[in-house]
Design goal:
Blueprint: E1 5-14, E2 17-22, E3 25-30, H1 33-36, E4 45-54, E5 59-64, H2 67-71
Antiparallel strand pairs: 1-2, 1-4, 2-3, 4-5
């Protein structure tokens, strides 16, 4: 297991994801387009389930609203 869930403040929306501020650390989370369309505005509190993909050359975090979506 790695990072399973993050709760923080929405900082910015990017073309393929968001930046979530968790106590001063900005996590870049890639998200499905369907989830990006329902994101709250900057400054809003957000709770996301996270899938962590660790490779030799990269660490990528994927955010999901529901645990069931993360499982798929």
């Amino acid at each position: 297991m790695f990072i399973e869930r993050l709760t923080g403040i929405m900082s910015a929306t990017l073309p393929t994801g968001i930046i979530l501020d968790v106590q001063g650390v900005g996590y870049g989370l890639e998200m499905p387009l369907s989830a990006l369309c329902s994101m709250p505005g900057a400054g809003e509190k957000l709770n996301l389930w996270v899938y962590s993909l660790v490779r030799e050359d990269a660490i990528r975090l994927f955010g999901f609203h529901r645990f069931e979506d993360r499982q798929v």
